[in-house]
Amino acid sequence: MVISIIVGLCVWFVLPIMFSSRFRKKKNKKAFAMFCKIVGIVIISFGIINHIIL
Predict the structure, then answer these.
(1) What is the pLDDT of residue 37?
(2) Share of the chain above pLDDT 90, in %
(3) Distance, CA of 9 to CA of 5 (rounded, Å)
(4) For 33-44, what is each residue's pLDDT tens digit?
(5) Cβ(36)–Cβ(16) under 8 Å?
(6) Measuring CA to CA, how many Å separate 22 from each of 25, 26, 28, 30, 37?
(7) Most buried pick, 1, 2, 44, 46, via CB within 10 A?
(8) Please, which residues have CB within 8 angstroms of residue 15's CB and are 6 or more apart in sequence?
C-alpha cells in the first residue's frame, strides 16, 4: 500500500514538473498535468482499495 501511494504521488506531482519543458504550448502542459493527476489518483485509490479488501 505504501509503495502504491508513493508511486501515485510521484506520478501526480513529479512527472509534470520533470516533463513540462518538453511541451511548448501551454494547453499541452496543462493537459499532461491533468493526465498525470488522474493517473496518480487512480493509482493511489487502487492501492488503498486493495489494502482494504485484502
Answers:
(1) 96
(2) 85
(3) 6
(4) 999 999 999 999
(5) yes
(6) 9, 11, 10, 12, 18
(7) 44
(8) 36
